[in-house]
Write a structure and sequence with these properties.
By secondary structure, this protein is an alpha/beta fold. Strands 7, 8, 10, 12, 13, 14 and 15 form a 7-stranded mixed beta sheet that branches. Strands 4-3-2-1-5-6 form a 6-stranded mixed beta sheet, with helices on both faces. The radius of gyration is 19 Å and the shape is globular.
Length: 294
Amino acid sequence: MRLVSLLPSATEIVYALGLGDDLVGVTFECEVPPSYRAGTTVVVGGRDTRGMSPGDIDAYVKAQVAAGADLYTLHAGALAGLDPDLILTQDLCRVCALPSGRVADAVDHLGCRAEVLSLDPYTLDDVLESIRAVGVAARVPDRAEALVDGLRARLAAVRAAVAGRPRPRVAVVEWVDPPFGAGHWIPDLVDVAGGEPVGTHRGARSGPTTWDALRAARPDVVLVAPCGFRLDGAAEQAVGVAGHFPGAQVWALDADGLIVRAGPRLVDGTEAIAAILHPDALPAAAPNAARRIT
């Protein structure tokens, strides 16, 4: 089967299912594993925002949306040349990837025979079910079932390790300029990790907030995990965030690697958050996963 992934989380799912050799097309943002581009074609491009500040990125996104312009570009000719059987896309977030409607239109226009599967999870359970959906569509349902069973077992182990312990109040900042409270599955990760999510949007899109509103939620721990950034970038931004929360622990997280991409590594993120909240109950998070700022 010839697979095309139009979002990084789907690429991670494909590799976790052992289908890396079937992947023929990816996006410019896909990065797991590091060797993924060997033999694959980049079929979705976009602006490289490295070096831009969070405020500049926010202004660019708002300007594109206001103008009715796309944030991503589908290279239709490249897609047609790949002759895919299955295309993995999304409608969850216009800022994160190309909408599935644009993909379906392109497939129809090009006369492709590919199935288009849109992955749009809003909760942690939805993410696990999306892995199963990919497995079914890619004709490896048994592999998907085994992968999900293993992920659920790890989540159950975290729940057991933190059971009965005090649950610190946890705010997750998904963007810093302007501040956004985390949404989608991220509050679920905090809950499984033994925390009480505050200032978040469980099962809904992340949304703008204010520092005053986040302070009013009285977090004990603030996790700074800006979408699109790894640990070093998150840590730089977390230094500024710390000034808004003098009484709380402030941590930076590898957002892209742990909590914002809807794939198997969300379980790694849950384990890392649990280690932050309950350091005597779980092994410490890896140095490249989390960094304490205050």
